[in-house]
Write a structure and sequence with these properties.
Elements (H helix, E strand, L loop, with lengths): L2 H22 L6 H4 L16 H25 L1
Helix pairs in contact: 1-3
């Protein structure tokens, strides 16, 4: 099995990890924040710590890997 044949399977795994990473993260704004409303607490600064920061950075890494595999398909 060549690299070009393995990339779609790698992309499936990365897409599932990316979806899970986005869904697991806490939402900083409720539904009201999406429409410009919200309470006074949602406008404050929130520092990511511990597992929240790890999931955030992991999601970014998975997104970058997904983009790299997608662009590599264009070159193959």
């Amino acid at each position: 099995m060549s690299i070009a044949e393995m990339i779609p399977y790698v992309q499936i795994v990365l897409s599932i990890l990316l979806i899970l990473g986005v869904l697991v993260q806490q939402s900083e704004a409720g539904l009201g924040g999406a429409f410009g409303g919200g309470d006074g607490f949602s406008s404050g600064h929130h520092t990511k710590r511990g597992s929240e920061k790890t999931i955030f950075i992991g999601t970014i890494v998975v997104a970058i890997l997904f983009a790299v595999t997608s662009f590599s398909l264009l070159l193959l």
